[in-house]
Amino acid sequence: MKRKPMMAGNWKMNKTISEAKELALALKASAGAETKVDVVLCPPFLAIPTVAGAVAGSNIKVAAQDFFWKEKGAYTGEISAQMIKDGGCASVVIGHSERRGRFGKVEDDLVGEGLGPFGDNNTTVNTKTKAALDAGLLPIVCCGETLAERKTGKTDLVVKSQVLAALAGLSGEEIAKVVIAYEPVWAIGTGEVCDSAEANRVLGMIRGALAELVGDTAQAMQILYGGSVAPDNIEELMAQPEIDGGLVGGASLVAEKFQALIDAAAKARGGCCGCGG
Ligand code: PGA
Fold this sequence. Notes:
Blueprint: E1 6-10, H1 17-31, E2 38-42, H2 48-55, E3 61-64, H3 81-86, E4 91-94, H4 122-134, E5 138-143, H5 147-151, H6 155-167, H7 172-175, E6 179-182, H8 196-214, E7 223-226, H9 234-238, E8 245-248, H10 255-268
Parallel strand pairs: 1-2, 1-8, 2-3, 3-4, 4-5, 5-6, 6-7, 7-8
Helix pairs in contact: 1-2, 1-10, 4-6, 6-8
The chain binds 2-phosphoglycolic acid.
């Protein structure tokens, strides 16, 4: 089955409001009419309304990088699904490795090892996934192993358990709306992209896990690869049948580079309009 590719730019903690507007407007000019690829921009919270305003009337969608699952209340520093929706988001990234605190440690300098200070775990990721769907936001749920886990042969075990935990308790209809992003922690921001055949293998394994939950519907679900995606490796990645696009950090911060990724995704799945034909 041909799936419509997605290219999601995760800007992380980059871009002031005016810088975000400039990048969004540049991408609206180059990719605003794109129909073969789902183009998604994930700015920092503060820039969401500005970016949503800048791309309004185009095919580009806006996503938040995280949120808290409670509707409202005394949660200092947090932001709700309703707030990011109100700001113009259609989607939200959940469980990025930079937000997971897998072993409960808080050392900031261990973020690269999957030990971030922000405390997401499989349970909070599951709660956030449910809350996002309830609010009508499309979740982009991240999973991925650390280098230590890969070296000890635990990649499939870790990734599958993250995916199953994220989707626990959801109906088949809900699961079908979720986008999964496989992001090996060791490949994020390091310039060390995962070998494309290996990324394809892991994505195939993830699709198998999804099929256990939703059967053939898994064939229609978008699964992304993330981790040092760049113009010089995107063609090879998109040539892999299981890879439906990218969740992109560094290369999404420069309009020309992100546009090159969108173009490569469109070319790789040329002729497909996402209609399933
Ligand atoms: P990167 O980040 O493209 O800079 O490696 C990817 C991500 O964290 O989503």
